[in-house]
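Z., the sequence and structure:
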Amino acid sequence: MERTTSIEEAKLILGKNFIGPDELSIIADQMRIALPGNYPEIPFSKKELIEKHEYYILILGTSQMKDGTPLTLKSLIDQFGKNPDISEPCFYNQDWYVKEDFIVRPCEKKWFLIRKNVLNETRGVDPQLIVAKIKLPAAVLCAYVFFCNFLLNQGDLLWKHDFVWCSDVDVNNDMIYVGRYIDATGFCKNGFSIHRHLKLRNNYSCIKFY
């Protein structure tokens, strides 16, 4: 079976769920991204794309911003900001991660096929059990796809109320999860969230009081 698909064929199969060179050129100024000079082949067969066309986005990743710096979570945060009262889309206003390594990990220049909605069978499941079975995306990839899709598809919100586990960990080896642009309770302001899942350690304990 042929494992590659042409850009033209992929566009026809995926429609608005395809984000390739032409689509990225439309939003390059808003994203402040540099378009890849040479595009890698799409490493998915037509059969795979047809099977996944409804629930997945095929997107061309890029690794650089327009100024030549790496495309990272930090560069996307710098571009979109953290205040929905000023502009949207934006990131959720928090700063615990500013010194973490994963925040400056660059996106890769390759094609990604990433699911648009969460797998219901993974809701509320211990992430360590999920990691054993499912390959998780990088946080920077999730953010990149989210903002590209929002700008190209009239404000469409991926993972609107849901969090998505990522392959990244913080300095304490706690897993990163992202998403949930809108808080369903209305308590928190809008913004693409970046959080960490704190593991129970022996310094988590309790005291008595009377």
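Residues 7-197 form one domain. The first strand starts at residue 18 and ends at 19.

Let me know what you think.
H.
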